[in-house]
Amino acid sequence: MTSNTPNSGEPFVPTKLIKHFQANHTTRDAQTSGWSALWDSQQNDLWDRGKPSPALIDLIESAPWPSREQRRPKALVPGCGKGYDVVMLALHGFDVYGLDVSPTGVETARAYAAKQLDAPLAHNYGEGNREKYPKDQRGEVTFMAGDFFKRDWEGKCVREGETFEGFDLIYDYTFLCALLPEMRRDWGRRMGELLGPQPAKLVCLEFPLYKDLKLPGPPWALREGIYYDVLAGGGTGVFDNDEAAQSALQRPNKGPLERVARIRPSRTYPQGEGTDHLGIWQVKSW
């Protein structure tokens, strides 16, 4: 008996999101059109969480985020959706770039950001912390329509006369799990290209850790060992059982990044309560 939700005890029933991709968007080349079609038909509620990540908020508010050259730290949120995490990070002093494949999604995010940056809701902050982040210290927000795996959008992330040197923070929540498993190795390679030198960090909210690896997506099931295999082990991150995924943690560090922490957040979205973890990565020390 397999399930789509933790401890449900119910047979797996494909969701509307899974049926959409199984019907017309099963190949890598069709992934972009699959997500864009959902945005254009106003079906983004199939994955919308309605607020920024509580786990990321708590991490950001736990200590000042390091940056370079006496400037605001620069962050990237690939697959940014409506822009919840992009706006939250800007309110906490980051210059933030939200990337999405859908022009409709980008326009939706821009509209959301315009309202929130003017009058932010309490869900952008930890309890009692709102006054610690005054308006005059907020960063800038830039939304871009583009393909994460291509480089043509990188020029929009630098000021005139600058060269692209990577991001101080990259946040991945439901981006990796939205990709076909065969795309995971390229995801890891691209993260290595986009992340700046130490102390820059890639933060992954690992989700869904509870789902059976044999079940279809999106979201595709993930495990600690999948992240490790791709980012540190230099592997494909494709496994069909928990034992194989767990064994990947023993691989030598041949990938582009190294893990510096893995924690269970005290707050997260309801969908991942009890299973979500935050994995924190940086460019490997040689």
Automatic annotation (TrEMBL):
Keyword Aminoacyl-tRNA synthetase: no
Superkingdom of origin: Eukaryota
PROSITE patterns listed in its UniProt record: SAM_MT_TPMT
Species whose genome carries this gene: Podospora pseudopauciseta
Bilayer-crossing regions: none
Name of the protein described by the UniProt record: Thiol methyltransferase
Classification via Pfam families: TPMT
Keyword 4Fe-4S on entry: no
PANTHER family: CYSTEINE SULFINATE DESULFINASE_CYSTEINE DESULFURASE AND RELATED ENZYMES, PTHR32183
Keyword line: Methyltransferase, Phosphoprotein, S-adenosyl-L-methionine, Transferase
